[in-house]
Amino acid sequence: MGAYLVFLDESGFLLTPTVRKTWAPVGLTPIIRHRFRNDRISVISALSISPERTRLGLYWMLSTTNINRDSVLVFLRNLLHHLRGPLIVFLDNSATHRGKPMREFLAQHPRLRLEYLPAYAPELNPDEGVWGAIKARLANGRPDDLVELKGRLVREFGRLARSQSRLYGCFRQSSLPLVSLFR
Fold first, then answer.
1. Of 14, 91, 114, 180, which is the most buried if we count CB atoms within 10 A?
2. CATH code of the domain covering residue 148
């Protein structure tokens, strides 16, 4: 039996809106009024490819605190719960992905293997496409508080997770050679 291939990454979403180019009538420049608040939601997510290389999945976890090693371990434990069989997880070299607690966790879960992507190579991680897709959908928006931002994030992650074609697009935008990933 093959293994799930899983690409993992973290990002943050601020109450301060991400501004992108948009359309507007000539002479009516859009103005986004917002409060300058540094409140944010941190997110860890993972894109998975089934062992048969026929189905893609998206898993995520939201947090009002920064993602740390404990958060990563909780997320990996949840992945192990949802995905049956061996998992090969590709992730960056962040300190939150290394250390004694991580080695102990791996020793307790032999069906999980971690592979580290090269340093400074986000273009190799298809999960970066998730951040691009979600941030594009939230661009030019102005949530009033973390509750509203969380609601928008849950909706957008759910929407993306239900679309195999959009998930496949996250892989296409990466620099990974796709021939070896999909059958």
1. 91
2. 3.30.420.10
